[in-house]
Structure formats: C-alpha cells, structure tokens
Amino acid sequence: MPYIPHTPDQQRQMLEVIGLGAMDELFQDVPGSLRATSFDLPPGKSEMEVFSFIRQLSWRNSTGLKSFLGAGFYDHYIPAAAPAIVSRSEFYTAYTPYQAEASQGSLQALFEYQSAMCRLLDMEYSNASVYDGGTAIYEAMMMAVRHTRRRKIIISGDLSPIYQHMLKCYTKNLRLELIIIDQSSGLPVMDSLTSALDHDCAALIVQNPNFFGNIYDYAPIFARCRDLSIVSIISVYPLLQSILKTPGQMGADIAVAEGQCLGLPLNFGGPYLGIMTCAGHLIRQMPGRIVGKTRDSEGKEGYVLTLQAREQHIRREKATSNICSNQSLCALQALAYVCLAGPEGLQSTARKCVELAHYAAEKLTAVEGVALLNHAPFGNEFALSLPMNAYELIGELVQKGFVPGFPLGRYYQGMDNCLLMACTEKITRQDIGVLAELIRGMVRGD
Amino acid sequence: MKTIFDHSVPGRVSPHQQKTETDSDGYIPKELGRSTTPDLPRVGELDVVRHFTRLSRLNFGVDSNFYPLGSCTMKYNPKFMEQAAALHGFTDLHPLLPQLKGAGLYTQGALQVIYELEDLLCRITGMDAYTLQPMAGAHGELTGAMLMAAYHKNKGNDKTALIVPDSAHGTNPSSAAIAGYDVLTVKSRDGIIDPAAIREVLDRRVAGIMMTCPNTLGLFETHLSEIVDLIHSVDGLLYYDGANLNAILGRMLPGEAGFDVVHLNLHKTFGTPHGSGGPGSGPVGVNKKLEPFLPVSRVVRLEDGQFFLKYDYPDSIGYIAPFYGNFGVMLKAYAYILRLGREGLLRVSENAVLSANYLRKRLEDHLHIPYNRMCMHEFVASAVRQARKGVRAVDIAKALLDKGHYAPTVYFPLIVKECLMIEPTETESKETLDTFIDDLVDILVRVESDPEEIRRSPRSTPVSRLDEVLAARSMQLCT
Lengths: 446, 479
Hints:
The structure holds 2 protein chains of 2 kinds. Chain A is α/β, with parallel strands linked by helices. Chain A folds into 2 domains: about 65-75 and about 345-445, Alpha-Beta Complex (Aspartate Aminotransferase, domain 1), CATH 3.90.1150; about 80-335, 3-Layer(aba) Sandwich (Aspartate Aminotransferase, domain 2), CATH 3.40.640. Helices cover about 35% and strands about 15% of the residues of chain A. In chain A, helix 6 packs across helix 7 (about 160-170). The model of chain A has no long low-confidence stretch (mean pLDDT about 95). By secondary structure, chain B is α/β, with parallel strands linked by helices. Chain B folds into 3 domains: about 1-60, no CATH class; about 80-340, Type I PLP-dependent aspartate aminotransferase-like (Major domain) (Aspartate Aminotransferase, domain 2); about 345-470, Aspartate Aminotransferase, domain 1 (Alpha-Beta Complex). Chain B has helices spanning about 45-55, 80-85, 90, 110-125, 135-155, 170-180, 195-200, 225-235, 255, 265-270, 325-365, 385, 395-400, 430-450, 450-455, 470-475; strands at about 130, 160-165, 180-185, 190, 190-195, 205-210, 235-240, 260-265, 285, 300, 305-310, 380, 410, 420. In chain B, helix 6 links the parallel strand 2 (about 160-165) and strand 3. The longest helix of chain B has about 35 residues, at about 325-365. Chain B is globular. The model of chain B has no long low-confidence stretch (mean pLDDT about 95). At the A-B interface, helix 1, helix 2, helix 3, helix 4 and helix 5 of A face helix 1, helix 2, helix 3, helix 4 and helix 5 of B.
C-alpha cells in the first residue's frame, strides 16, 4: 500500500506484541452495530494516473484570459523565490511550533512576519495570521466587543460586500447589532458614519481603498471614535499600503487586511492570509497565535508562542477565539515576498498598478457614454458607469478573451450598469488599448 | 540568529522593482499618501533565500524527524500532491470568475474538484452533503455549531446549551461559545463518556453534543449508540469532531453511527501538510436534516454535466468564507484519496491503530498508562512516576528532541496529569517506532540515575530550554 511501510511479517510481529491474532481484532472496541456497512470508494491509482488526471482537470480551467478582475483579490506577479522558500519541507511539514526549541525556524519567521506587518501597516502589534481578510475583520470586531462590552457595530457600506456577508453570518447567534451605513456611488459617507457613532457603539469598520477603489483619510472619524471610546477598525490593501497614508497615521485601533496580494496566488479562493494588527492597549484581546522573543537557559535569544492564556486550549469557552491552525505558511510566503520586493519594490509595484489604472480610466472614459462612477481619488481600482448592463458586457468580452472587471450590480442595488475594474503590473497599456476598443465597439453596437 | 531586518543595507536594491512610465506619485493626493517609506528590509534575493534556508534548518518537520504529536496526525505528505496543487491551471484562477457571465466555463476543472471531493467525503463518512469552505478544524467546528443553531431556530426549538465532554478537543468549547451556546462539560468515566453523566445534564435546552471519537485519550466511545439515542430523544444533534478520523477510516461511518454533523481535518487524515500551523482545511458534512442550512455557495452539476455555483438556498447560514475554502489544500486531499482508494484508506486506519498499540504495549512497563487497554490511533501516557523524581512530562518531551524526535503532545488532554499523547500514524516504519521506543526508554532509565540531566534538556537543539515566562512578561512581539 502506498506510504504504509509495514511488511506482513512486521504486522505479525507487532500483533504478537499486542497479543492479537489478526488485524481485524484491532477494532474490537467498535461495536458490531456501529461497523461500516459499506465503504463505497473507487480503487486506488498510481501516482502517474492520479497526476495526469488532475492535470487534465487543470486544462479545463482557462488561465489565458486578460483579466481586470480584482474586487479585493489581485493577480500580482509572484517572484519565483517566494514559493521556493516555502517549499522547504522543514517549513511545510512542521506543525504549530509547540516545541519551540525544535521550531525556531518557523517561530523566527513568524516573528519577522509580525514585525513586517507592523511596519507596513504602521501599527504596534501583529498576530501570526488568521484565515483570511474576512475572518480578520470578524475577529477585530469581536476584539472591540470584548474590549468595550458594547454590542453595536457601525459598518461602512463600502466595506467589501463579501465581508459584509461574512460578518452577518458570523454574528447571527451573538446578539450584536450590525448597522450598515448605505452608500451610493461609492462616494464617502463620512457624515452619515459620524452621526451614527454614539456611546453604545463597540466599533466602526471601514475599508481603504474601499470596495470601489476610492481612497480616503479616516483620521477625523477615528478621532471621533477615540472621543467616544469606540474601537476603530480599518481593512486595507497591504501592497498599496506602501504608498498610502497608514492606519497608524490615521489613528486606527485595529488594522486588518487580506494578505493575498503579498505574493500568494489567487488559487481559486485560498489559501489566503488574514493579517491582524492592533494598537498596544488591545493586545490582550488579540486572537490566535502570537510569537514573542525570549532567551534560553544560557541567555541566547530565541522565540516562543506567547500570551497563550488568551487561547482556546487553555481558556476553553472563555478564549478570545477558537482559532488553532491558522495560515502560517501563507504568512511565511507573504514575508518572503515583502523581503524580496523590499520597500522600494513594494512601492514601485503599487505605483505601477496605480499608474495603469489611471491610464485605463482615461482610455475607457474616452468611450462615449462611459464615465467614472465618482471623482474621488482612487488607487489601482475604479468604478465605471456604462451605457449598458455590466454583467452582459462581461459575458460578451469573456468570449473575446477579456475579463473587464466585476459587475457591481452583483452586490449593489441600482448599479447594474457599473463595472469595477482593477489593474495589476501584469496588465500592459496595449491590453488596455484593446479592451477600450472592444468596449467602444460594443457601445456603438458594432 | 540575525533577523532579516538585521541583514538590511541602506541603498541595496531589490531585483523586483517595477518601472513606471510617468511620475506616478501625482495620482495620489499628498494628504492621502504615506509620508515615510515603510522600514522593511533592503536585501538582495540571495540574502533572502539564504536567510530562510538557514531558518528552515532550525526546524523539525515530518520530512526530517519522527513527529508523534498526538491528535495532530503528522503523517507523511506525499510529494506528488504538492506538484498537483502547483499546476497553473488552478493557482492562476480568480475566485470570482465563476460568478461572471460566461466565465464559469473557464473554471470547470476547479468546480469539478470541489464537487467530486464533496462526494468522496460523503462516502468516507456516511454523510449526505458537504461544504469545503471551513479553512481549519476549528473553523469547521464553528460552522457545524452554527448549522446546529440554524436547525433548531428553524424548528422553533429553544436550545441554549451544547454538551462538550472533558475529553474533547480544546477548540470544541470555544467554538460552541462563539456559536452562542453555553457549554455543559460532562466528565468522562474510565476514559470514555458515561451515558449517566449525559442523562444528568440532559434536558430540553440541550442543542446537542460535540464528540471526538475516538476521543483525545485514543479510546473508542463504546457507549456511542446509547448517547446517540439520548441526544436525539430531546431533538438534540450529534457533532462528530473528525480530528481522529484516521483511526476509523472505513471501519465506522459517522453518518451511519448516528452523527448529524461532521468536520474533518484534511491536513490530518488526508495527508496535506501542516505548514508550520496552517493552512489547513476543515470541511463539514451533514445529513439530510441539516443540508438546507449549509453555507453558500454550493457547487451543483447540471444535466449537461456542467458545474456551476448555486446561491439560492433560503435557509442557508450564509457566508462563512469569502469563497470556496482553502482550495489549494482541497486539491491535495483530493489527489490523496484518489491515490489511496478504498483499499488504501482501509489500510490507513488498520496500520495507524496497529502502530499505536504496538508503541503502547512496548512502553507500558516504562511509563504509566492510565487507560491501558486497546487504543485506537493514539494513546496517552503519564509521567506521574517520573514527576516524583522531579522530571515532568515537559522534560521528557525536551529530552526526546535531543534524540532527534519531535515530542508527543504534552499536557493535553487536561484530564490526565503529566500526560504525553502519542500518535505514530501509519506512515512510520517499525524501525522508526523501535528507535523511538529505545530512545524513550533510555530517557526513562536516566530519569532514575540522573534526573537533573534530563531536566537540562534539550542540549542539541539550536537553543536550549526557552523562558516562556520572560516572553509573556517582556512582550517583545516584533522588531
């Protein structure tokens, strides 16, 4: 049998040591009435057969499309060294570093990851990751609820609607009041957000750039939060964060992010990386693993999992979260990406994407009837209003090898003619030119 | 060892910089821009590769060391699965593609993987439907508990509490609490759940029970049928924590045994790597009673054989993940199940149980084994005798590191003092098990002659015993 090394002789010897006569007797504790009546699975296959079958499946997915699809998940170039580093099996075949002395590699790498995230987001503390950007927002919200002992949450409507759905799902049984401040046109609704804040609020949740790609300064509203002892939570796009005003500068209490853009492939939705950072006063509310620096019995520096009194295996039902396995290997890959790019590499990639997006916006708005949805500043993603249904337009263009973006009508009422378009460094000006011509042709009804 | 930040040299340029065509700073108004460059390492590619290669060599992993970490099922991770999961036809796929008009056609291979893996898991566990969205075991537990809550709400049941035995996984009580339930802990008797203890707490407000079977002591819950009847008698639901499924693959199907909800750990039972602590994958299976409540989206197969995503489930609990779960991990588990097939999976449970019992019998004269009877895939030993000499479970664990073995799980489950939870898995050879036994026995002999020496271990690891109290007090969590 594949991967099972015992020979029949060895099995007999081992059974003899145990005092049994046959392998079947190993299951003597499983009552007859509970035994499986069937185990209807296909027979095993050789490695070659399985691999070639899965490769054939992969050919049924097309990856040759020119894509302007983002909506929070971006197709950035990944330097070859990033996956090469995490393919070291000492990293990927280890587990959560419970035995610190035999896990210094993972522990130091996670410590460096925490440090890199704190520096990128300009916050005091980071944990060692949670599942994804959505669970990071949920966990941040729960930190706020525990910290303030309040139950009302104000959510800006331009937070990713995917994450809004997740928050609604997670809080169904928790007697929390989620208030989503509607937005229209992706324009800022600072006034409505500010007027919704009061002494009953645990948290304010915003996103920068928001789902529509627009960039804001949340410093004034975070200051208002501070006055009312409300925890301010911001979800950011970490690659762009290298050139945008930081959560720290804005005075955020908790900054979270989906870390996929930092060197992780799109991979049809995962594994991704939930980045969580916070201000100093909230560290004991932080969920999940945290690595800390310490010394060994001879005074040498080393690393351990720390502040474990917060965690599920110690505090059981009173833990800050139930999270156990997180996304360590993804955190390591993100760290490798950040190091390979360096600060200037991150910034130049971010600028390149922003530049391309502005070029695309210029080219596309030159098409008659196409306009920017709003005139707020944007980064590498922007919303267009079209003279036609966006979902239908995408359907047409996909057949021509282009995915022009995401149809905003999927999540926002009254936005059926709106298209969300993203650029990464993988897009060329030529791609943009061709797409603009295709859209021009469709608008004209060619 | 130096951190990557210590290797930074001002002015050193990354080879991964992009050229822009214009002065692109102008696109972001100054007041919205970052005032300082982030203080991240300026290092060359070789610096990065060498630094992380050096770090990797400070780690024990399954590829380099025996890893008998109880309840974690640290089996060998076959290499071809990594190769399959790295195929660009999968890694390059944007998760929103199938939600766009006409683009679903371009993701048929990926949707087929999800659809067929769900089907295989149904067959392996006797359940009727699966969601692959939960991204780890604990996430699966939470999803399962939320499904139970949705079921009761839908039926108008006023349920407020979940029973969690003291031998269950540490994440269970926490998951139940997050799903909004009070936790009723029941004490086990003789290492397993005592139906009488269930009866004591059982009333109309009990929503169900979260069970691990075999439990964290490695013992099969022999009163399972009685517990199933008891819980169902108040319209409660039974939750199967699949952390220990490796023990019973093909021997008992949780669905047939009476469980209503199951979560699996693909990174335990189905050979996907643990990644230093994730990414994992924690699919949740349900029977017909709970199927309407599964998270959206779900992959369905149309009559023409095409796969597509369906969102129209009015009773669904909603979105527990942004998309379809840790797809890259699922792909590996799918490859693993196809490779092993029916016979292979049956041999997994059999040999996992064989190896655990072999270790137990060979060690019973040297270590106290509180429930010393047939175990399943793991067993719990206790260092209480050694503790009288001043050598605790943790000291034995550290001494094992010096012998080149990772340590068993220590101090869990909480119900056994000074415990060492040992799970060898089916992929370790008898030679490895014998070496482990000899090394452990040698340590236990030396506990008698020189306990101080054992307490000073580990000596051969990159660092000696680390001060956890200092770490918590000094709070140096970043540099």
